[in-house]
Amino acid sequence: MQLTVDTVQNVAVVKIHEQQLDASNSDDFKRDIAPVLAERARMVLDLGQLQFVDSSGCGAILSCLKALTSAGGDLKLCCVTRPVRNVFELIRLHRICEILDSREDALASFAKGAK
User: Fold this and answer.
1) pLDDT tens for each residue of 29-46
2) Are the C-beta atoms of residues 15 and 3 closer than 8 Å to each other?
3) Alpha carbons 30 and 16: distance in angstroms, whole number
4) Selection from 12, 2, 5 nearest residue 110 by Cα
């Protein structure tokens, strides 16, 4: 699983460099994201390259959210493509995870919450 991790103001910004997050690679995603989850309680997932997500991929994202919230943090999603957003809306994931247009908006929403 290709991930890029940047840290901005104590927030992990993780970009997924994959076209899909599904049963074929969701276990790899969970394995590769685990060290990031252990280091940071706040995370932005940049889904700009993702074109397809299935229930396994949604489950992997939800497992990130669960780990972060249990550590007192939160997860924000950004740059969500239309096909992926359609799936999120269908299963109502957009009501559980905050979805923002850009990395900057996601980081700003963390900054607003910190005040």
Assistant:
1) 999 999 999 999 999 999
2) yes
3) 12
4) 12
What is the structure's pLDDT at 115? 41
CATH code of 3-114, in short, is 3.30.750.24
- Cα(109)–Cα(98) distance, rounded to whole angstroms? 9
Q: Whole-angstrom Cα distance, residue 99 to residue 105?
A: 9
Alpha carbon distance 50, 112 (integer Å): 27
Please choose, from the candidates 93, 52, 59, the residue with its C-alpha nearest in 3D space to the C-alpha of residue 76: 93
Distance between CA atoms of residues 1 and 36, nearest Å: 14
Domain ranges for the chain, please list them: 3-114
Check whether 47 has a pLDDT greater than 90: yes
Residue 1 has pLDDT above 60, yes or no: yes
Burial of residue 1 (number of CB atoms within 10 Å: 0-12, 13-18, 19+)? middle
**pLDDT for res 23:** 96
Answer whether 0.85 is exceeded by the pTM.
yes
